[in-house]
Write a structure and sequence with these properties.
The complex is a heterodimer of chains A (371) and B (91).
Chain A lengths: L7 E5 L28 H13 L4 E5 L9 H10 L3 E6 L6 H10 L3 E6 L4 H8 L4 H13 L4 E7 L7 H10 L4 E6 L4 H5 L1 H4 L3 H18 L4 E5 L2 H4 L13 E4 L5 E2 L20 H7 L1 H5 L24 H8 L15 H13 L22
Parallel strand pairs in A: 1-2, 1-8, 2-3, 3-4, 4-5, 5-6, 6-7
Antiparallel strand pairs in A: 8-9
Chain B lengths: L7 E3 L4 E5 L4 E6 L2 E5 L1 H8 L7 H11 L6 H13 L3 E3 L3
Antiparallel strand pairs in B: 1-5, 2-3, 3-4
Protein backbone atom coordinates (compact mmCIF):
# COMPACT_ATOMS: atom_id res chain seq x y z
CA UNK A 1 0.00 0.00 0.00
CA UNK A 2 0.92 3.66 -0.38
CA UNK A 3 2.51 4.93 2.82
CA UNK A 4 1.50 8.54 3.50
CA UNK A 5 3.10 11.06 5.83
CA UNK A 6 2.36 11.18 9.55
CA UNK A 7 0.67 14.28 10.96
CA UNK A 8 1.37 13.96 14.63
CA UNK A 9 4.07 12.85 17.00
CA UNK A 10 3.37 12.03 20.62
CA UNK A 11 6.55 12.40 22.67
CA UNK A 12 6.20 10.51 25.95
CA UNK A 13 9.09 12.30 27.64
CA UNK A 14 8.96 10.34 30.87
CA UNK A 15 6.68 7.96 32.73
CA UNK A 16 7.36 9.77 36.02
CA UNK A 17 4.20 11.48 37.28
CA UNK A 18 2.92 12.92 40.56
CA UNK A 19 -0.60 11.64 39.78
CA UNK A 20 -1.75 8.04 40.15
CA UNK A 21 -4.89 7.94 37.98
CA UNK A 22 -6.38 4.46 37.88
CA UNK A 23 -6.94 4.71 34.09
CA UNK A 24 -3.45 5.95 33.22
CA UNK A 25 -2.57 5.23 29.60
CA UNK A 26 1.01 4.34 30.45
CA UNK A 27 1.94 0.65 30.35
CA UNK A 28 1.36 -1.26 33.58
CA UNK A 29 5.12 -1.87 33.72
CA UNK A 30 5.80 1.89 33.48
CA UNK A 31 8.22 1.64 36.39
CA UNK A 32 10.48 -0.90 34.70
CA UNK A 33 14.19 -0.21 34.33
CA UNK A 34 14.10 0.03 30.53
CA UNK A 35 12.05 3.24 30.58
CA UNK A 36 14.45 4.95 32.94
CA UNK A 37 17.13 5.39 30.28
CA UNK A 38 15.21 8.36 28.90
CA UNK A 39 16.21 9.96 25.62
CA UNK A 40 18.57 12.91 26.07
CA UNK A 41 17.87 16.48 24.97
CA UNK A 42 20.04 15.94 21.89
CA UNK A 43 18.32 12.66 20.98
CA UNK A 44 14.87 14.26 21.18
CA UNK A 45 16.07 17.24 19.16
CA UNK A 46 17.18 14.92 16.37
CA UNK A 47 13.80 13.18 16.53
CA UNK A 48 11.99 16.55 16.13
CA UNK A 49 14.11 17.43 13.08
CA UNK A 50 13.39 14.02 11.53
CA UNK A 51 9.69 14.23 12.37
CA UNK A 52 9.36 17.62 10.72
CA UNK A 53 11.14 16.38 7.58
CA UNK A 54 8.74 13.42 7.54
CA UNK A 55 5.70 15.72 7.47
CA UNK A 56 4.73 15.80 11.15
CA UNK A 57 2.89 19.04 11.97
CA UNK A 58 1.66 18.47 15.53
CA UNK A 59 3.84 17.54 18.47
CA UNK A 60 2.42 16.59 21.86
CA UNK A 61 4.71 16.58 24.87
CA UNK A 62 3.22 14.08 27.23
CA UNK A 63 4.22 11.46 29.75
CA UNK A 64 3.81 10.65 32.62
CA UNK A 65 4.28 14.29 33.48
CA UNK A 66 6.39 16.05 30.82
CA UNK A 67 7.10 18.90 33.26
CA UNK A 68 9.25 16.39 35.18
CA UNK A 69 11.87 16.84 32.44
CA UNK A 70 14.06 19.78 33.44
CA UNK A 71 15.08 20.31 29.82
CA UNK A 72 11.47 20.85 28.67
CA UNK A 73 12.07 24.48 27.59
CA UNK A 74 15.00 23.34 25.43
CA UNK A 75 12.90 20.57 23.92
CA UNK A 76 10.12 23.05 23.15
CA UNK A 77 12.59 25.46 21.56
CA UNK A 78 14.03 22.71 19.42
CA UNK A 79 10.60 21.55 18.23
CA UNK A 80 9.41 25.11 17.58
CA UNK A 81 12.59 25.72 15.59
CA UNK A 82 11.52 22.93 13.26
CA UNK A 83 8.11 24.53 12.75
CA UNK A 84 6.19 21.96 14.79
CA UNK A 85 2.97 23.02 16.51
CA UNK A 86 3.68 22.18 20.14
CA UNK A 87 1.26 21.11 22.85
CA UNK A 88 2.12 20.50 26.48
CA UNK A 89 -0.17 17.86 27.99
CA UNK A 90 0.22 18.28 31.73
CA UNK A 91 -1.31 17.60 35.12
CA UNK A 92 -0.07 21.15 35.83
CA UNK A 93 1.01 20.65 39.45
CA UNK A 94 4.33 22.37 38.79
CA UNK A 95 3.22 24.81 36.09
CA UNK A 96 3.93 28.07 37.90
CA UNK A 97 4.35 31.51 36.35
CA UNK A 98 8.12 31.33 35.91
CA UNK A 99 7.97 27.94 34.20
CA UNK A 100 5.02 28.88 32.02
CA UNK A 101 6.81 32.02 30.87
CA UNK A 102 9.96 30.11 30.03
CA UNK A 103 7.94 27.68 27.94
CA UNK A 104 6.19 30.55 26.20
CA UNK A 105 9.52 32.20 25.40
CA UNK A 106 10.74 28.85 24.04
CA UNK A 107 7.82 28.89 21.59
CA UNK A 108 5.21 26.63 23.16
CA UNK A 109 1.93 26.94 21.22
CA UNK A 110 -0.72 25.33 23.40
CA UNK A 111 -1.34 23.92 26.87
CA UNK A 112 -3.62 21.05 27.74
CA UNK A 113 -4.44 20.50 31.41
CA UNK A 114 -6.06 17.36 32.79
CA UNK A 115 -8.81 17.42 35.40
CA UNK A 116 -10.08 14.24 37.01
CA UNK A 117 -13.45 15.77 37.94
CA UNK A 118 -15.12 19.15 38.50
CA UNK A 119 -15.49 18.32 42.17
CA UNK A 120 -12.22 19.06 44.01
CA UNK A 121 -12.50 16.22 46.52
CA UNK A 122 -13.41 13.60 43.95
CA UNK A 123 -10.81 14.91 41.49
CA UNK A 124 -8.10 14.58 44.13
CA UNK A 125 -9.34 11.12 45.08
CA UNK A 126 -9.21 9.88 41.50
CA UNK A 127 -5.82 11.49 40.87
CA UNK A 128 -4.56 9.83 44.04
CA UNK A 129 -3.05 13.11 45.18
CA UNK A 130 -4.09 16.67 46.06
CA UNK A 131 -4.02 18.51 42.78
CA UNK A 132 -7.32 20.22 41.88
CA UNK A 133 -6.55 23.64 43.38
CA UNK A 134 -3.24 23.88 41.58
CA UNK A 135 -4.80 22.80 38.30
CA UNK A 136 -7.32 25.63 38.52
CA UNK A 137 -4.54 28.09 39.34
CA UNK A 138 -2.46 26.84 36.43
CA UNK A 139 -5.38 26.98 34.00
CA UNK A 140 -6.02 30.63 34.93
CA UNK A 141 -2.35 31.40 34.49
CA UNK A 142 -2.31 29.75 31.06
CA UNK A 143 -5.18 31.95 29.91
CA UNK A 144 -3.66 35.04 31.49
CA UNK A 145 -0.54 34.42 29.39
CA UNK A 146 -2.85 34.09 26.36
CA UNK A 147 -1.99 30.50 25.54
CA UNK A 148 -4.81 28.55 23.94
CA UNK A 149 -6.09 26.19 26.64
CA UNK A 150 -7.50 22.68 26.38
CA UNK A 151 -9.07 21.03 29.40
CA UNK A 152 -9.18 17.26 29.24
CA UNK A 153 -11.25 15.00 31.43
CA UNK A 154 -11.40 11.23 31.27
CA UNK A 155 -15.03 10.18 31.83
CA UNK A 156 -16.23 7.11 33.71
CA UNK A 157 -18.72 5.86 36.26
CA UNK A 158 -17.18 7.88 39.08
CA UNK A 159 -17.43 11.34 37.49
CA UNK A 160 -20.04 11.15 34.70
CA UNK A 161 -22.81 12.35 37.01
CA UNK A 162 -20.90 15.64 37.33
CA UNK A 163 -20.87 16.26 33.59
CA UNK A 164 -22.85 19.53 33.85
CA UNK A 165 -20.33 20.83 36.39
CA UNK A 166 -17.42 19.61 34.26
CA UNK A 167 -18.76 21.57 31.29
CA UNK A 168 -19.26 24.56 33.58
CA UNK A 169 -15.68 24.31 34.82
CA UNK A 170 -14.31 24.35 31.25
CA UNK A 171 -16.46 27.38 30.47
CA UNK A 172 -15.48 29.26 33.61
CA UNK A 173 -11.79 28.61 32.88
CA UNK A 174 -12.33 30.07 29.37
CA UNK A 175 -10.99 26.92 27.69
CA UNK A 176 -10.67 27.02 23.90
CA UNK A 177 -11.02 23.27 23.70
CA UNK A 178 -12.49 20.55 25.86
CA UNK A 179 -11.56 16.92 25.44
CA UNK A 180 -14.05 14.58 27.03
CA UNK A 181 -12.63 11.11 26.68
CA UNK A 182 -14.72 8.19 27.78
CA UNK A 183 -12.30 5.75 29.37
CA UNK A 184 -10.59 3.36 27.00
CA UNK A 185 -10.01 0.03 28.67
CA UNK A 186 -6.34 -0.86 28.31
CA UNK A 187 -3.69 -1.39 30.92
CA UNK A 188 -4.57 0.33 34.18
CA UNK A 189 -8.14 1.09 33.09
CA UNK A 190 -8.79 -2.53 32.18
CA UNK A 191 -7.76 -3.56 35.70
CA UNK A 192 -10.25 -1.03 37.05
CA UNK A 193 -12.97 -1.75 34.52
CA UNK A 194 -15.59 -2.83 37.04
CA UNK A 195 -15.12 0.41 38.95
CA UNK A 196 -15.06 2.63 35.86
CA UNK A 197 -17.61 1.28 33.38
CA UNK A 198 -20.67 3.55 33.51
CA UNK A 199 -24.34 2.75 33.19
CA UNK A 200 -26.20 3.48 29.99
CA UNK A 201 -28.30 6.11 31.79
CA UNK A 202 -25.18 7.97 32.89
CA UNK A 203 -23.89 8.04 29.32
CA UNK A 204 -27.17 9.08 27.75
CA UNK A 205 -27.57 11.97 30.15
CA UNK A 206 -23.95 13.05 29.57
CA UNK A 207 -24.34 12.94 25.80
CA UNK A 208 -27.50 15.04 25.94
CA UNK A 209 -25.87 17.67 28.17
CA UNK A 210 -22.74 17.78 26.00
CA UNK A 211 -24.88 18.29 22.87
CA UNK A 212 -26.77 21.17 24.53
CA UNK A 213 -23.54 22.75 25.70
CA UNK A 214 -22.02 22.43 22.24
CA UNK A 215 -25.04 24.11 20.67
CA UNK A 216 -24.93 26.96 23.18
CA UNK A 217 -21.22 27.70 22.86
CA UNK A 218 -20.91 27.24 19.11
CA UNK A 219 -17.48 28.15 17.75
CA UNK A 220 -16.35 29.54 21.12
CA UNK A 221 -15.20 26.14 22.34
CA UNK A 222 -14.15 23.11 20.34
CA UNK A 223 -15.40 19.96 22.03
CA UNK A 224 -13.91 16.56 21.33
CA UNK A 225 -16.04 13.73 22.66
CA UNK A 226 -14.30 10.35 22.54
CA UNK A 227 -17.05 7.76 22.19
CA UNK A 228 -17.58 5.08 24.83
CA UNK A 229 -16.79 2.24 22.43
CA UNK A 230 -18.09 -0.44 24.82
CA UNK A 231 -21.56 1.04 24.33
CA UNK A 232 -21.45 2.01 20.68
CA UNK A 233 -21.42 -1.44 19.06
CA UNK A 234 -18.94 -0.09 16.56
CA UNK A 235 -15.23 0.28 17.06
CA UNK A 236 -13.33 3.53 16.96
CA UNK A 237 -10.73 4.17 14.26
CA UNK A 238 -7.93 4.01 16.76
CA UNK A 239 -5.23 6.66 16.16
CA UNK A 240 -6.90 7.28 12.80
CA UNK A 241 -5.79 3.81 11.70
CA UNK A 242 -2.66 1.85 12.57
CA UNK A 243 0.47 3.62 11.30
CA UNK A 244 -1.49 6.07 9.17
CA UNK A 245 -1.22 9.42 10.96
CA UNK A 246 0.45 9.11 14.31
CA UNK A 247 3.78 8.16 15.83
CA UNK A 248 4.26 7.62 19.56
CA UNK A 249 7.72 7.53 21.09
CA UNK A 250 8.26 6.12 24.58
CA UNK A 251 10.62 7.72 27.11
CA UNK A 252 13.47 5.42 26.05
CA UNK A 253 13.00 5.92 22.31
CA UNK A 254 10.81 3.01 21.28
CA UNK A 255 8.70 4.02 18.26
CA UNK A 256 5.10 2.79 18.32
CA UNK A 257 1.94 3.27 16.26
CA UNK A 258 -0.03 4.00 19.45
CA UNK A 259 0.70 4.47 23.13
CA UNK A 260 -0.75 1.09 24.13
CA UNK A 261 0.95 -0.98 21.42
CA UNK A 262 3.43 -2.53 23.85
CA UNK A 263 0.61 -4.80 25.12
CA UNK A 264 0.82 -6.74 21.84
CA UNK A 265 3.30 -9.58 22.29
CA UNK A 266 5.69 -10.28 19.47
CA UNK A 267 5.69 -6.76 18.04
CA UNK A 268 9.20 -5.46 17.67
CA UNK A 269 9.56 -1.75 18.10
CA UNK A 270 12.53 -0.02 16.56
CA UNK A 271 14.31 2.62 18.57
CA UNK A 272 15.33 6.12 17.48
CA UNK A 273 18.73 5.36 19.00
CA UNK A 274 19.30 2.74 16.30
CA UNK A 275 17.35 3.93 13.26
CA UNK A 276 16.13 7.12 11.66
CA UNK A 277 12.50 8.01 12.21
CA UNK A 278 11.87 7.91 8.47
CA UNK A 279 13.26 4.38 8.19
CA UNK A 280 11.10 3.29 11.10
CA UNK A 281 7.93 4.89 9.68
CA UNK A 282 8.39 3.09 6.36
CA UNK A 283 10.06 -0.19 7.31
CA UNK A 284 9.36 -1.01 10.97
CA UNK A 285 7.72 -4.42 11.20
CA UNK A 286 5.50 -3.16 14.03
CA UNK A 287 4.18 -0.37 11.81
CA UNK A 288 3.65 -2.60 8.80
CA UNK A 289 2.02 -5.41 10.72
CA UNK A 290 -1.48 -3.84 10.71
CA UNK A 291 -1.05 -1.15 8.09
CA UNK A 292 -3.69 -1.13 5.35
CA UNK A 293 -6.28 -3.90 5.27
CA UNK A 294 -4.45 -7.06 4.06
CA UNK A 295 -4.07 -8.35 7.63
CA UNK A 296 -7.81 -8.18 8.32
CA UNK A 297 -9.85 -11.26 9.13
CA UNK A 298 -13.55 -11.59 8.43
CA UNK A 299 -15.90 -9.92 9.22
CA UNK A 300 -13.62 -6.88 8.64
CA UNK A 301 -12.20 -7.96 5.29
CA UNK A 302 -15.52 -7.72 3.44
CA UNK A 303 -16.97 -4.92 5.60
CA UNK A 304 -17.85 -1.58 3.99
CA UNK A 305 -16.65 0.15 7.20
CA UNK A 306 -13.10 -1.14 6.90
CA UNK A 307 -11.68 2.12 5.53
CA UNK A 308 -13.57 4.05 8.23
CA UNK A 309 -12.81 2.19 11.45
CA UNK A 310 -9.83 0.16 10.13
CA UNK A 311 -11.03 -2.86 12.09
CA UNK A 312 -10.94 -0.94 15.36
CA UNK A 313 -8.25 -1.15 17.97
CA UNK A 314 -5.51 -3.81 17.81
CA UNK A 315 -4.62 -3.40 21.47
CA UNK A 316 -8.22 -3.90 22.55
CA UNK A 317 -8.48 -6.98 20.33
CA UNK A 318 -5.35 -8.36 21.98
CA UNK A 319 -6.43 -7.61 25.55
CA UNK A 320 -9.92 -9.06 25.19
CA UNK A 321 -9.41 -12.00 22.81
CA UNK A 322 -5.69 -12.76 23.01
CA UNK A 323 -5.39 -12.20 19.25
CA UNK A 324 -4.24 -8.75 18.09
CA UNK A 325 -5.46 -9.45 14.53
CA UNK A 326 -9.02 -10.19 15.65
CA UNK A 327 -11.87 -7.81 14.90
CA UNK A 328 -12.19 -5.33 17.75
CA UNK A 329 -14.75 -6.94 20.12
CA UNK A 330 -16.57 -3.63 20.54
CA UNK A 331 -17.86 -4.20 16.99
CA UNK A 332 -21.27 -5.87 16.99
CA UNK A 333 -20.12 -8.14 14.15
CA UNK A 334 -17.14 -9.43 16.13
CA UNK A 335 -17.46 -13.09 17.16
CA UNK A 336 -16.17 -11.91 20.56
CA UNK A 337 -18.70 -9.10 20.99
CA UNK A 338 -20.31 -10.94 23.93
CA UNK A 339 -17.21 -10.12 26.02
CA UNK A 340 -18.05 -6.44 25.76
CA UNK A 341 -21.79 -6.94 26.19
CA UNK A 342 -21.20 -9.03 29.33
CA UNK A 343 -18.93 -6.38 30.85
CA UNK A 344 -21.34 -3.53 30.23
CA UNK A 345 -24.32 -5.56 31.47
CA UNK A 346 -22.47 -6.35 34.68
CA UNK A 347 -21.82 -2.63 35.06
CA UNK A 348 -25.49 -1.91 34.40
CA UNK A 349 -26.58 -4.32 37.15
CA UNK A 350 -23.97 -3.17 39.62
CA UNK A 351 -25.54 -1.23 42.45
CA UNK A 352 -22.41 -0.84 44.51
CA UNK A 353 -21.95 2.78 45.56
CA UNK A 354 -19.23 3.67 43.09
CA UNK A 355 -16.79 5.08 45.58
CA UNK A 356 -16.72 1.83 47.50
CA UNK A 357 -15.32 -0.09 44.56
CA UNK A 358 -11.59 -0.07 45.31
CA UNK A 359 -9.39 1.49 42.66
CA UNK A 360 -6.05 0.11 41.61
CA UNK A 361 -3.91 3.24 41.44
CA UNK A 362 -1.21 3.59 38.86
CA UNK A 363 2.14 2.88 40.41
CA UNK A 364 5.73 2.65 39.20
CA UNK A 365 5.87 -0.65 41.08
CA UNK A 366 3.52 -2.27 38.58
CA UNK A 367 -0.02 -3.46 39.05
CA UNK A 368 -0.99 -6.29 41.39
CA UNK A 369 -2.27 -8.27 38.40
CA UNK A 370 0.95 -7.89 36.44
CA UNK A 371 3.03 -9.47 39.17
CA UNK B 1 -21.40 37.30 9.34
CA UNK B 2 -18.86 39.75 8.02
CA UNK B 3 -19.46 43.31 6.98
CA UNK B 4 -16.84 45.27 5.03
CA UNK B 5 -15.77 47.18 8.16
CA UNK B 6 -15.07 44.08 10.26
CA UNK B 7 -11.45 43.18 10.82
CA UNK B 8 -10.78 39.42 10.82
CA UNK B 9 -7.84 37.80 12.51
CA UNK B 10 -6.74 34.24 13.18
CA UNK B 11 -8.16 32.88 16.44
CA UNK B 12 -5.93 32.33 19.45
CA UNK B 13 -3.46 29.55 18.82
CA UNK B 14 -4.12 29.39 15.08
CA UNK B 15 -1.26 29.96 12.68
CA UNK B 16 -0.50 29.72 9.03
CA UNK B 17 2.45 27.63 7.92
CA UNK B 18 3.90 26.43 4.65
CA UNK B 19 4.20 22.64 4.70
CA UNK B 20 7.20 21.79 2.51
CA UNK B 21 6.45 18.05 2.61
CA UNK B 22 2.89 18.34 1.28
CA UNK B 23 3.68 21.56 -0.62
CA UNK B 24 0.58 23.22 0.83
CA UNK B 25 -0.24 26.15 3.07
CA UNK B 26 -1.58 24.74 6.33
CA UNK B 27 -3.66 26.34 9.01
CA UNK B 28 -2.49 24.85 12.28
CA UNK B 29 -4.57 24.92 15.44
CA UNK B 30 -4.42 23.05 18.74
CA UNK B 31 -4.40 19.35 17.80
CA UNK B 32 -5.47 20.03 14.22
CA UNK B 33 -4.46 21.12 10.75
CA UNK B 34 -6.42 22.30 7.73
CA UNK B 35 -4.88 22.20 4.25
CA UNK B 36 -5.59 25.41 2.32
CA UNK B 37 -5.88 25.97 -1.40
CA UNK B 38 -3.83 28.91 -2.72
CA UNK B 39 -6.74 31.35 -2.85
CA UNK B 40 -7.83 30.60 0.75
CA UNK B 41 -4.21 30.97 1.85
CA UNK B 42 -4.02 34.37 0.10
CA UNK B 43 -7.04 35.59 2.10
CA UNK B 44 -5.74 34.25 5.40
CA UNK B 45 -2.35 35.89 4.95
CA UNK B 46 -4.22 39.20 5.02
CA UNK B 47 -6.23 38.37 8.17
CA UNK B 48 -3.77 40.01 10.58
CA UNK B 49 -6.37 41.98 12.54
CA UNK B 50 -5.55 45.39 11.00
CA UNK B 51 -7.16 45.11 7.59
CA UNK B 52 -10.93 45.24 7.18
CA UNK B 53 -12.82 42.76 5.05
CA UNK B 54 -13.27 45.57 2.51
CA UNK B 55 -9.54 46.22 2.56
CA UNK B 56 -8.74 42.54 2.04
CA UNK B 57 -11.09 42.33 -0.93
CA UNK B 58 -9.59 45.49 -2.38
CA UNK B 59 -6.06 44.15 -1.99
CA UNK B 60 -6.93 40.84 -3.67
CA UNK B 61 -8.82 42.70 -6.39
CA UNK B 62 -5.65 44.58 -7.35
CA UNK B 63 -3.90 41.22 -7.79
CA UNK B 64 -6.73 39.80 -9.91
CA UNK B 65 -8.26 42.75 -11.73
CA UNK B 66 -11.64 42.26 -13.33
CA UNK B 67 -12.71 39.38 -11.06
CA UNK B 68 -15.35 39.97 -8.38
CA UNK B 69 -13.94 38.23 -5.28
CA UNK B 70 -16.17 39.82 -2.64
CA UNK B 71 -18.60 36.97 -2.14
CA UNK B 72 -15.91 34.30 -2.17
CA UNK B 73 -13.94 36.10 0.52
CA UNK B 74 -16.99 36.64 2.73
CA UNK B 75 -18.07 33.01 2.35
CA UNK B 76 -14.61 31.72 3.18
CA UNK B 77 -14.45 33.91 6.29
CA UNK B 78 -17.91 32.75 7.36
CA UNK B 79 -16.98 29.08 7.12
CA UNK B 80 -13.64 29.58 8.90
CA UNK B 81 -15.40 31.54 11.65
CA UNK B 82 -17.82 28.67 12.09
CA UNK B 83 -14.82 26.39 12.64
CA UNK B 84 -13.47 28.83 15.21
CA UNK B 85 -10.37 29.50 13.11
CA UNK B 86 -11.00 33.18 12.33
CA UNK B 87 -12.47 35.72 14.73
CA UNK B 88 -13.40 39.42 14.81
CA UNK B 89 -10.38 41.44 15.94
CA UNK B 90 -12.63 43.99 17.68
CA UNK B 91 -14.85 41.68 19.71
Amino acid sequence: MQIGNPYSLVAELTYRCPLRCPYCSNPVDCGSEAYKTELTTEEWSRVFADASALGVLQLGFTGGEPMARRDLPELVASAAGHGLYTTLVTAALTLDRARAKRLQEAGLDHVQISFQDSDPTNSDRIAGTRSWDRKVEAARLVRELDFPLTINVVLHRQNLDNIAEILGLAESLDADRLELANTQYYGWALENRAALLPSREQLERAERLVAEFRARLGARMEILYVIPDYFDNQPKPCSGGWARQTIVISPHGSVMPCHAASVIPGLEFDNVRDRSLEWIWVHSSAFNKFRGSDWMPEPCRSCPQKEIDFGGCRCQAMLLTGDPAATDPTCMYSPHHHLVVDARERAQRSEAPVKLVPLVYRSMKGSPASK
Amino acid sequence: MWSDQDRPRLARGVRLRWDPVRETQMLLRPEGAVALNPSAAAVLELCEGQRSVGGIIEELQTRHPGVDLGNDVRELLASLAELGLVIHADR
